[in-house]
Amino acid sequence: MGDKLGQIKVTVVQGKRLVIRDFRTSDPYVILKLGNQTAKTKVINCCLNPVWNEEFCFSIFEPAEVLELEVFDKDRFKADDKMGNAQLSLQPLVAAARLRKILGVASEGTTLRKVIPERDNCLAVDSSINWVNGEVVQHVWLRLCEVESGEIELKIKLIDFSCASPSK
């Protein structure tokens, strides 16, 4: 791990079209991992389109890491069932924040960068990185992998960002 760049606030907004892992439904929750940091949402019982709206803060380091998430179905008497996973590179968010700092872009709602779905990312649709209320914000829909269906909506804000350079 390199120099600390700052912090991000990740909001796990909602899931849609999650897979059935119980008889007719699932009891989903999400585990987020960034480096050695982990966070977990609450369990939403009997729901394939859960709304969490839970916020978590993580420290980010140079080089920008990958945010990983796993979705599980909570089971009472056996191991929790996997409902898919996804990854999001934070490099585009960090690069957009650096660019904004260098260029001094400050007009409200400015799109700093657009990230499109590709084979090497889990984006379900195009994602914009914007300057909103004095913060660099990315809104994403991630397609869950290793599962028949399911998407997770996240909102990521870069907070307490410094343009620290890697140590020499």
From TrEMBL:
BP-aspect Gene Ontology terms: abscisic acid-activated signaling pathway
Any one Gene Ontology molecular-function term assigned to this protein's record: lipid binding
Annotated compartments: Cell membrane; Nucleus
Keyword Lipoprotein: no
GO CC entries: nucleus; plasma membrane
Annotated ranges, domain C2: 1-103
Record has Nucleus as a keyword: yes
Keywords associated with the record: Abscisic acid signaling pathway, Calcium, Cell membrane, GTPase activation, Lipid-binding, Membrane, Metal-binding, Nucleus
Family: Belongs to the plant CAR protein family.
Name of protein: Protein C2-DOMAIN ABA-RELATED 11-like
Gene name as annotated: LOC107766000
